[in-house]
Amino acid sequence: MGESLLLEPSLAQTLAVSAAKTSKLSLSTSTQRSLAAWIKDNIRKKECCFYVDGDSKGICKCGYQRIHHVDDSIKPENYLGETWDRHRHVHEVPTDAYGDIWFGGLGQKIGKYVRVSSDTSPDLLYQLLTEQWKLPPPNLLISVTGGAKNFYMKPHLTALFRRGLIKVAQTTGAWIITGGTHAGVMKHVGRAVREYVLRSGSMEGQIVAIGVATWGAIHNRRPLAHLEGRFPAHYSLDMQSQGHLSCLDNNHSHFLLVDDGTHGCYGVEIELRSRLERLISQQPLGNRESGVRIPVVCVVLNGGPGTLSTIYGAMLNRTPCVILEGSGRLADVLAHVAGLPVTKVTLSVIHQLMKRFFGPEYDSFTELKIIEWTKKIQDIIRMPQLLTVFRMSEDNHGDVDVAILQALLKANRSSESVGMERWERQLELAVAWNRVDIAKTDIFTEDSQWKSSDLHQAMFSALLGHKPQFVRLLLENGVCLREFLGDQTTLCDLYTQLPTSCFFLRRLAKRIQTEKSRRSQTLSPRGAAGRTISLSHVSDEIRHLLGSFTQPLYPLPGLHSTRYPKEPKEDVAVTLPPKEQLELQASPDPDRGPGRDSERGEETFRDPGGDLFLWAILQNQKELAEIAWEQSRDCTSAALAASKILKKLAEEGAEEEDEAEEMRELAKHYERHAIGVFNECHCCDEERAQRLLIRISSSWGQTTCLRLALEADDKSFVAHSGVQALLTQIWCGELAADNPLWRVLLCMLFFPLIYTGFLGFRRDDSIQREAERSAELLTMESLTGSQACTRRKYPVHDLPVRNPLGLKPLTVSTRLVSLFTSPQVKFYWNILSYFSFLLLFSVVLMIDFQTTPSWREGLLYVWLISLVCEEVRQLFHDPDGFGFRKKADMYINDMWNILDFLSILLFIIGLVFRLTTRLFYAGKVILCIDFIIFCLRLMAIFIISKTLGPKIIIVRRMMLDMFFFMFLLSIWVVAYGVAKQGILIHNEDRLDWIVRGVIYEPYLIIFGNMPSNIDNALFDIKACSVNGTESQKPKCPILNEDKMPAFPEWLTIILLCVYLLFANILLLNLQSSSSYTFQEVQDNTDTIWKFQRYELIKEYHSRPAAPPPLILLSHIFLFIRRIVLQRPPNSYRAFSERGCLVEEEELLSWESFMKDNYLLSCRQQQSQSMEQRTTDTADKVCTITELLQREEATGSVALVKRLTRLEEQVSQSARALQWIMDTLKAQGLHSKEEAPQLASPGKLKRSESEPNEPHRQEKTEREKMFYHVNARRLDYPDSTIPRFPVLEEKVPWEVDFILYNPPVLNGDSQDQTDGSEPDSVKRYRNPGGRTGMKGRGALTCLGPNLILDPVLTRWRDSERSALEFLAVWDQEDGLWTLPGGPVQSDEPLPDRLLRIMGQKIYDKIKTKVVEVTKVHEGYVDDVRNTDDAWVETTVLNIHLDRRSLLMADINRMAENTVGCVELVRWTEVSSRTRMCSYQRDALRRVAELHQRTF
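RE: above sequence
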């Protein structure tokens, strides 16, 4: 309309604009321009183009005033002399009302609105909603309809409705569509949304409530109109002056304002809303094309005749409806007749219910209208699968949200899907809604039998939707991860569809971009991943996160085949080899590489649970990761790998500190999981637990749990007593761990003592334990007389570790080698060597430092060369496969290595200086300083000590704290020193004395050395130099004429006091900080020490046995072996071992059992915690409160029902007494009416549902008949004229129907008659009864129209396991049909069969006609039937031999129809096949003919 041109910005509009500037929901300027351009190009409105005065002067027929018409419409030349017509004189122009709408008020959200033409394509509206307004596609569409005027509902029912509606919208991601005005049911929806917003207090995750209203019926709509849009428009709710118009509801989020060019007319939006809902219902649900469409449900509150038409149309479109009993009017009428047989829903019953629930409004209803409504209600009752009534008095539905979702599932069960396909569709809906409760109660029932493959699609959707509860439910109901991820395509798809906000996906896109750097175009994260992502890219990124010491998790194609192992058998009769067989010394194996195992073959087995766990961890999805971790087999390695990955992601990838903190917390969580599982393992079996630590995991990059824990910096895990026991065992080597230190030291000096039993060896202890165990077993066998105990079968998780009897004792040479190759003994020899080195170094510096180096100094140089060679060996020694760069970084980051490098560098510099004459003394000074560094390096040696190690860690931490305090103190020292020097001394130019005065003296003052030059009383001119010419004396302060200091003495003393005050404050803070640091570190010192102990153990484990300087011989040997002979390095099995496949399978099974025990104990602890008990108590209180409220609300309803039944009993008793009295009065004569049957007190029956007529209890044969239904549908096919409504009781011709006045339809011509019948049709009368339409309709002739339905059958196989028939798919109706149709007079088979089969097959079938069996012949309930024309069919059965040539031709023809409109397929003769009623009955007769169960 032109009204927008007359508007000016108002104060309210200005306030709205200012509010939008501060709102997060307001659009940016560029987005506003883009939206405005799109709307101008696509969206239209309607306006009147021909002004004609209506009933009131100055008001057009369209309802708008004259001033609201454009000038061209006042005197149009094109329409002169015409009568105003809405279809002709209203045209479309670009819309002028769109943008943001703000209703004012505190916390009020800004919505969106647009004015659209009633003829707008629903595709454009859906595009506007999803692409322009950025709404995510819904998982459910809730269409709320009912009373458009305000009505009363009971408070409890109102609360149930609001809570249930919001819950279903929030949990399922639904759109709610209403009429959008601030009245009636729309107002209830708006208040429900408002309560949710106030309760949640969040602007995110808003409920999408779309109001589809009539533009011409909206009050105060002028502020919404502007040619360039309003961003935002201020809309005021003016309920007082709205008159017959309506205000928009201020709690809806989006508005579609439908315009047909009229003003004041309601219901304009109904057709467009219906088309929009139908379009949305045809959109696919979810991200993958699974065949499931967006479900639509209609929720009805209150309502009138218009609502009945809406419900009727929705159910004809197979949209389920939920009726709220107690909301009044139509909803209560439908609720009372729901569940009754159609024969009981009579016109009189509807009259009574209308009168009861509509009140005074009932008097305005005509008889014809009530007949039409009764017919619609009967049709609605015939579709019970689409009708759900929510009753407060019943507990089967629970809340409204459950009733809504169950209604959808009930409707889905009756759809065209059959068998597992139906269940899969329901499950897909439940997953999309994220309603686990619905899936548990309605889908995973005893009737449904699920295979793992049936649940894969739902599992994929649940994982992508991040729905952990559904993932757990699917796993509990049969999903096998090995089958689900058996094809690597599924895992690749999971990585491909990571959310764009995922940092890992951006890393993958960056890697792919790098590989495609030659291309000029830039790939987006989604585009890059979507086209080129592969598991090799994923593997490279994961290896970057885990570390270069790991192998690729997903090898490149062609190197190794990656697959999942088969399910392990339940009984595994194998045992693990003893731990004593593990050799801790070097064991070269040149044929075995890091990723190869001769016993395993070339295949790499994957853990599907671990793969899924890794996928979840990379997204920082805690709940999904928890479920996947529970399914993983290598759970300890998985938890430690997750800790490493998350810490690396938090370090590199977290853009926000909160996200990084979440990753760090999750890393700690999985470290605790690893500790918990390992603790269970260690408590059960220490030896197996230690093997678990050093086992090479093929699922996690060919590394070990111990290595992963160290790289992840999981100090708590490494500090576990089980890990420390392993480290202690490695530290002791073959020596027993319980040997006293003094015995080890004594045997180092006098090694023959090892042959006397003075020192214990682990192998000796193992042989002794095995002997004791064998003796115990022999004793038990002798006592029991049986060997059953030795042949006992243990379960997988309880298998004993077997020590073989053939274990040989250590020989003389192996004992000696085991002693001196023990890391513990190596360490003690190196300590002795280092002390000797320091002693020799000190002797050379203090006693024997000659111009010409002596033999002692030469020995010192040789000793240092051995230390240098050892440092070089440590730098290049890489048993873990880090690579030189990583190894160099690790070497440099170690403080002790820095000290080593610094000490060696200073020694070399000092050595070079001392070999020269000029710098001889300087070289000695450098060597003396270097001696200090060598002494400090001694601390690293004692870090292995349990007593000294933690203290060294505390000292290091306190030194770091002291450095920062010294920095602050140095600022204050320099500040005071400069000020003091400037006041006392004038122009001192000697640098050494400046440093003394500025730094040295102020520093000594802190420790009590008070200066004498700031006090005149202590001044002595002889102690200083006046001009500063004497180098040994300080310069005198500024002197006066009396040769006394002239500086202000009071100022220097004050400065000194202030300086000492602040200096002492800093020192006190340093002391407090040191105490705090000591206390803090003291609590974690033991953990830190245990963690750092590993590196020292590993260093001495790989160190040559000889101490310096004898270690040079080992270095020479290694040089010859590696460089000259080119032999590979020795591999060490103390920190890693690779068992055979059977042993590893057994170990993982045992670990999984221990994991289950750990999870069970965690759940028990959580259930017994105070927080959980409080939560459970609160839930129980809420449940009891809700039950009490429901009982209170339903108590009155139950009382009313009981009183109604009592009244019915009294009424029947009165009639019985009257009958007795009449009989007695007649003195033996029969009564005029039959004696009534008294109802039993326990029978539930509504008195309102009984017609108040004399013969309402009479049972006749006519009431028990089933009349045609399709022939009475109100909408006749391909016609705009509806049928006359024919009620169920008015179908038979014998029943009088005075108001019956059906229209006449003959082909394309149609006429309305007065009910009289022409002579040409009097002789034709439909044998099924009235249909509501006369004439021949769409049929070819009056009277019976004959069709032939051939049923071609065959046996499925030679065993006759099933009977099949040839079916044709009707895409329009979604049904399987028989290949039948009308028959030509000279043909025995229908033309449709010829069109489908072709001439060749048709001729062959025609030869079989003589062998056919007539199955059925009679009337067909067809939608084309009329009173004067109807369809009759003859069903023939043609049974074919499955081995005949005709059968081969038919099979080839059926294969060629795949993808065609008419799909032909052999289908089992079963009641589950979706067909029309009469053809299903024909199939039943065919099944009986062949003696098959239908």
